[in-house]
Design a protein that fits this description.
Number of domains: 2
CATH architecture of the largest domain: 2-Layer Sandwich
CATH class of the largest domain: Alpha Beta
Order of helices and strands: EHEEHEEHEEEHHEEHH
CATH topology of the largest domain: Alpha-Beta Plaits
Structural class: alpha+beta
Helix content: 25-40%
Length: about 270
């Protein structure tokens, strides 16, 4: 049977999500937990895959992973007990054998939390609106050999719990793209750039790339694969760990609270 899981994690102590030799990653921990539970013998033959990668320090609320297993009941009942306390499944679903979380994703949503409360909000709104549509994002991403053309379906800033939040939705994103967009927004909010400069950078893709905002403010908020997930309970060990780790760090406390949802008293 093939299962899909909605996965959340706090990115502080991961070297990104994608499996890499010799370092701690989300995929590495997930595969190790599945192996300990004997959900599969080999992650390749089990078709293990994720909807995309996140960088070192980036968190996720709605990453999607999929795998085939002969023990679906065990996976749903026990997987959260085997995962480390900074990574957990919040939902599961049975999916067709052909399902692939990367290629079946129709839309991805990211949120970047802006802690600086002195930013010019009208300037943020104007700059965010400039990203909507189909553009060449060469100056807002590490493109490499990939197509720099991307379509942004919505981009907005809103205030939530004392934070300004930049939320952006699109089918796909380039490496560092959201963080570069966030850096430009912050610069506009500080009057170091004008919203019209964002338009100019999109219209003239040759030139220096924008810096990337710090990864700690970024959350992969949702990946829409057309799946209705059944909820999975947060392990009490994870809850206790997160309450202990966030301490007085206001930004991390806000993000971890969003990842866990109601019931985590931070």
């Amino acid at each position: 049977m093939k299962l899909a899981f909605r996965v959340a994690y706090v990115g502080d102590h991961f070297c990104g999500s994608q499996m890499q030799p010799g370092v701690r990653t989300v995929e590495g921990e997930f595969i190790a937990a599945c192996t300990r539970l004997d959900l599969f013998d080999d992650w390749r033959s089990a078709g293990f895959s994720c909807s995309g990668r996140t960088d070192r320090g980036v968190s996720a609320r709605g990453q999607v992973c999929a795998l085939c297993t002969d023990h679906p009941e065990r996976a749903v009942a026990v997987l959260n007990l085997q995962l480390p306390p900074d990574c957990w499944c919040s939902g599961w679903a049975e999916v067709p054998a052909t399902f692939h979380p990367r290629y079946d994703a129709s839309e991805r949503t990211y949120r970047y939390y802006l802690q600086d409360g002195s930013l010019d909000e009208p300037a943020l709104d104007e700059a965010a609106a400039a990203f909507v549509g189909t553009h060449d994002f060469s100056r807002f991403a590490r493109v490499g050999d990939r197509n720099p053309i991307r379509t942004i379906r919505s981009a907005q800033c809103f205030r939530e719990g004392g934070f300004l939040v930049f939320e952006v939705r699109g089918e796909s994103f380039l490496w560092n793209m959201v963080r570069c967009m966030a850096w430009a927004l912050i610069a506009c909010g500080k009057a170091e750039m004008a919203p019209a400069d964002v338009v100019s950078l999109l219209d003239h893709p040759r030139g220096d790339r924008m810096p990337a905002a710090p990864p700690e403010g970024l959350v992969l908020w949702d990946v829409d694969c057309g799946i209705t997930f059944r909820p999975m309970a947060l392990d009490p060990r994870t809850k206790a760990h997160l309450e202990d780790q966030v301490g007085g760090w206001v930004l991390r406390k806000k993000i971890v609270g969003e990842l866990c949802g109601p019931g985590l008293d931070l």
